Model the fold of this input.
Amino acid sequence: MKNLFVNVIIKCIFILAFFFLFPRGSLAESYDVTAYIDLEVAADQPIREYLKNPGEDSDDTPPINIQRSNIASWLDHLLERGITVVTAEVMNLDGAVFYPSTVLGKIGFKQPEDYGDLFSFLVEESKNRNLKVNVLIEDLAHIIQNGKEYSDQLDVSVISPEIVSSWIGELAEIGRQHGTSIWVNEEAYSTDYIAAIERRAKIEGITYVHFFDDRYGRGDIWLSEDYATYPMDPSRNKADANMLVNMSKMGSVHGTLGHLNIMYAHAVSQNKPAGCLTAGEWGMQNKVQPSICLFRSVQFDLAMHGFVAATQDDGSYNPNELRFAIDYDHKILREQINRYGKKSSDAPKPVANLIITHAGENDEYYFDMRQSVLQSASTALLAAGYELRVTHDQFLENAVLYYVVGVASLFDQKEDLPDTILSLSDNPEANSVKVIYHPLGIPNSKNWLKTMARAGGNFIEGLSGNEDISPIPYEVEVIYQNKLYPVHWRGHYPWPENSSDAARQYEEHMISVIDSDMPLIVGNLDAQFGLDNTKIPLVISKNKIFFINGNYLHLDAASALANLFSGKPVYLSPSYGYLTTGKDRSAFFAAAETEVKLRIGNTCIAYAVDASGQSIRDAFKVIDGVMHGNSPKWGLIIATANEC
Done:
């Protein structure tokens, strides 16, 4: 499970809805919206019947003319919702394919006898409605990796990169026959398959949609899975522990808002359009999907957005969420994004370059590393008012802050920091930028040790936990307005097997004992493990060079880091959630019920809703640029400079 590329074992019963917004930074009259449609369900049941009995298959397959009528009724309903692109699944794991496919036939897929060529009909009807067609191709990857159960009639050994490439060519040809644009939507394939998909998509001139970002910049559009917020406290909260275990079993522990900041910021650096895909009843409440996409539009220039109404493989589902996703009028969200989202006319923000280093080609640890600290780091930088950009093994020339993360001695890796990245802090007296170094594991290699020395400390000893004990303190005290508040320091390993594991600490937790004459910036805790009178700092700093100690940081640590990087404290009291600030607009999305006392600099509350979309604007106020109030869990608050 852990090696799957975030294998989301969600069986999408019905709907995605994506907006494509052009030009970036503002909405144009011409835009695309796409909705997922399961061809088998659409053929068997008209939309209203499906809403009455979601997930139930008809015992008697309707005649072909009824199948076509049902598909047409689905398309008409989607069109009414403002949709202009249909995302279709043309095969299933039972070995059925819903058009006469020569390529899939070689694998063992068969067209059901009582079904017509549903895909070609869908393509033709889509053309008649000015719709484009996006085809999900990810299930072949799940078959290859044995990530989902599939029919024993399928021959996995046949599914080569060449077969996948040929399938894309076959789909593109059907699109050309009907004069309709065809896209392909991919997830979970390994590198050789991704290379084949990208090559064939370019040859055919079709759009390639890739889930998450890609170190090598592959894919035409990058798509998130913004499915959850980080569990607040699995060690002390059973519900949080169960949620983390459930997401691990489904292969989706990386689908959190903080973690996926990385995808959006990397997309900007790669000049890739990126989209927000989100779901209720996964790690968040139903009806919160519009708030997630609206929050993302404040953070980044969204190219598209989408909702997923889904079930797990055991067949469980939430009919209310399904109805919400099917019937939601996306023109409403389009207007909200147009009104409150990021705009090209916004005042520019200073650029923070978050650099992910790779000493070798092995990316085995990469996704766990992101879960380990990057959601806390990226959230801190956005909260501190920076424009976030992510790069790999290289730095941007125009940044005013560099946050460098890489493996030192974690996940059985022993990697050193590249000389080119260390050079960012070669001349601290003459350097006007801030440089933050954050090794994952014990920095016992030459360049990583230099980073600590430049920040004013020396390495004494490395501490590593076992299954039951972590050397990372549970919490530290941070000063907010001359008051001490506890801040959760210790995060959690992202792949627990059960809820009791979620509450335990793992041996990958590592921390350094540092000898430093410099004042400790954040955190000053007596070391345990028999090291009497020794202090463990979270951060030390000298001459604008910072060293951050410890992996698996909790999201709560972002508040302390944000205050450290902003110059003027942003968090005036602990607020559990995700924050983005800027001169023109700021947004806060609560990961728990929390007090909000944040220095945002804006003048008024423009928009505030709870998890169900009900207004809570009256619960908040802005006084001298500080936002006050109390937010319910999954509440969204947007403040602006000139619109209330």
Notes: The chain is about 30% helix and 25% strand. The two ends are 47 Å apart (CA to CA). The first strand starts at residue 10 and ends at 12.
